[in-house]
Amino acid sequence: MAMEMLEAMEVLEDQTWLDPTGDEVQKVVSRVLAHERPTGMWLDNLLNGVWLGHPLHPVLTDIPVGAWTLGLILDGIESVTRRREYAAGADVAVLVGLGGALASAVTGLAQWQYTIGRQRRLGLSHGLVNVGATVLYGVSAVLRGRGKRGAGKVTALLGYGIVTIGAYIGGDLVYAHRLGVTHVPETELPNEWVRALADAELAEGQLKKVMVADVPVLLVRQHGQVYALNEVCNHLGGPLSEGTLEERCVVCPWHGSRYALSDGRNVNGPATFPQPTYEVRIHNGQIEVRATKASE
């Protein structure tokens, strides 16, 4: 069974006919959430969960899944016991799920806009499947409102089956394609000072990547102060050494995440996690780095 599901995911990832649609949807979303406009940047940060310190989309997906699961249970109890008091609870659960599904879709689009290739195709498939499930639940709500509870229950059951498929695809996006998780390598710096670079080799305003104990480190000198961060952007793995240096911040060249040089906090997204930083000192003409005290 597991192999069949993996093969199904690979089939979805290879559906290149989805690319034109995905590209057009991505363009529309990116225009609405463009960082060139303060409102666009604010909305993008809001929907991606920068303020939460965690991607917002997976938080909201629990609402429709949980509500519709409860609705399914209440529908089943009502069908078996014929007790009408469960009907009202099931109907409310369907409506709550619809509200959660809308919020999940909006935040999902904000997160998905930064994907490419196979990841984008799988994400689009995930969205389309969930749209289908939401439509079925919308129909179920209408049927229930018109007193056609039997048809409403059957439609909801079909919707639940489809939303389960959508949830599986979403899980594959997170765990197989690492969408919404940190991309910083797991290798850590030692707790002891390690030479990184000769002090004379780091110019003012330069973004320089060095490998220290198999860890990619970004060294930056600004206003005479030397800073060290992990060089791999935690959002989707962009090379910060190829980014832009601003006042007390470095900006990722891929998607514009902005990190404070001093402590790695994300000044704006789409990254939701802070960027790891390291302690720095200049000793005997050498720039040395080590793990921060917080990670010791």
Number of domains: 2
Please give the order of strands in the largest beta sheet.
1-10-9-4-3-2
Counting DSSP E segments of at least 2 residues, the number of strands comes to 10
The assigned structural class equals alpha+beta
Structural topology:
Elements: H1 2-13, H2 19-32, H3 38-48, H4 57-81, H5 85-112, H6 117-145, H7 149-175, E1 194-198, E2 207-212, E3 215-222, E4 225-230, E5 244-246, E6 249-251, E7 258-260, E8 266-268, E9 277-283, E10 286-291
Antiparallel strand pairs: 1-10, 2-3, 3-4, 4-9, 5-6, 6-7, 7-8, 9-10
Helix pairs in contact: 4-5, 4-7, 5-6, 6-7
Features:
296 residues, alpha+beta, Rieske Iron-sulfur Protein, six-stranded antiparallel β-sheet, four-stranded antiparallel β-sheet
Give an overview in words.
- Helix 4 runs antiparallel to helix 5, helix 4 packs antiparallel against helix 7 and helix 6 (117-145) packs antiparallel against helix 7 (149-175).
- This protein has helices at residues 2-13, 19-32, 38-48, 57-81, 85-112, 117-145, 149-175; strands at residues 194-198, 207-212, 215-222, 225-230, 244-246, 249-251, 258-260, 266-268, 277-283, 286-291.
- A hairpin with a 5-residue loop joins strand 7 and strand 8.
- The strands form two sheets. It has a six-stranded antiparallel beta sheet, with no helix packed on it. A four-stranded antiparallel beta sheet has the order 5-6-7-8.
- The protein folds into two domains: 2-175; 194-295, Rieske Iron-sulfur Protein (3-layer Sandwich), CATH 2.102.10.
- The protein has 296 residues and is α+β, with helices and mostly antiparallel strands.
- The chain is elongated, with a radius of gyration of 24 Å.
